[in-house]
């Protein structure tokens, strides 16, 4: 501080402070209010999101329990849950369960429909899982070109091993053994010893 300010009396200092606040107090007060409002709004939004997620999770558990007890009878419950929670990952989980139940019954067309719907999910991990399972279903349906086209869209390196093995299996089914061999050998490069053994069985059977 300057010497001039230090030499002022307490009353003068108070008057200076009062005048400064008159000039600057309103903008500061507004800024404080805005900061508090933003903080309260953020906390409210977080709490709302958490509460919504908890309710969706609980609803998912109830619907799935009913569905698994009697899939045919309670299919409408799942459809309604998916429609009501389209932007939630839980809707995708429900679609995966639908596909699983359909595959267990040998209804690969129904499984394909469920997995195609799951591809609308914005989460990249869930979309990749949906794409891989859809390729497996297309393989069972002998839609080999569709299966291969879907697999080419999977870029996540974590899926490379499973992707290359499935590509090899599809190419074998198509009768293209040289290409299948290349896919299996590519998969083998990223495989653990136990997985290499399973790939070797495939290679030996070509």
TrEMBL record:
Taxonomy, superkingdom: Bacteria
Keywords: Cell membrane, Chaperone, Membrane, Transmembrane, Transmembrane helix
Molecular function (Gene Ontology), one example: protein-containing complex binding
Record-annotated Ancillary SecYEG translocon subunit/Cell division coordinator CpoB TPR domain positions: 18-206
Principal subcellular localization: membrane
Membrane protein topology class: Single-pass type II membrane protein
InterPro entries the UniProt entry points to: SecYEG/CpoB_TPR (IPR018704), TPR-like_helical_dom_sf (IPR011990), YfgM (IPR026039)
Compartments, record wording: Cell membrane
Transmembrane region(s): 28-45
Cellular component, GO annotation: plasma membrane
Entry-linked Pfam families: TPR_21
PANTHER family hit by this protein: ANCILLARY SECYEG TRANSLOCON SUBUNIT, UPF0070 PROTEIN YFGM
Family: Belongs to the YfgM family.
Record's protein name: Ancillary SecYEG translocon subunit
